[in-house]
Amino acid sequence: MKQENAKVAKDEDRGDILTREMLASTSAEPLAFRVVRGGLFVAAGSYFNILFGFLASLVLTRLLAPEAFGTFALAMFFFSLLNLQPKVGVGYAFAQRPQTTGELIGTHLALDVAAGLSSFALALIAAPILLVFGYARPVVWVTLASPIGDGDGLGVFGFG
Asked: What are phi and psi of 18, to 5 degrees?
């Protein structure tokens, strides 16, 4: 009954049902304004991540012995190569959806956990290869632990 009163319109490109109010709110701002604003938010977020990573590295260099910091840095390098979550792009696809539903959240969680488990499986496959190439066992152990404890980890421990 609410849909009849709101005079719904069907968006042919996405198949979503949009009310007249939603259509009016999306067309109120020019596209260029929304693009620039979105770009500024992305740039600010990227610069914040770079700054935070740099500051975290400074703190870690002070807290850890040089050997431990080298082990950690090398393991993080290998994990960044093996981590599938940012490469799959599930988070970007989730952010592009105009409406959030329970089904969408469940699908996002399932895909994110699957990507995290796949990253862990890749780390398990890479572990003996790293040992064959002469990398120290602590590097391999930290690489294996990274999918679990990382902020993006298995999708369960995510903080960002």
From this structure: -115, 135
Tens digit of pLDDT for each residue in 12-35? 445 455 555 555 555 577 888 888
Q: Which stretch of DSSP H or E encloses residue 3?
A: helix 2-6
Q: Which amino acid is at 38?
A: G
Q: Both 118 and 46 in a single domain?
A: no
Tell me which of 63, 79, 106 is where a domain ends: 63
**Whether pLDDT at 147 is above 50:** yes
Domain end residue (candidates: 46, 63, 80):
63
> Are 24 and 75 part of one and the same domain?
no
Based on the domain organization, do 91 and 155 belong to the same domain?
Answer: yes
User: In angstroms, rounded to a whole number, what is the distance separating the alpha carbons of residues 144 and 76?
Assistant: 10
d(CA 13, CA 117): 34
Structure token pair of residue 52: 């935070």
Helix, strand, or coil here: 120?
helix
Helices (H), 7-158: 20-28, 31-63, 66-82, 85-88, 90-96, 102-132, 137-149
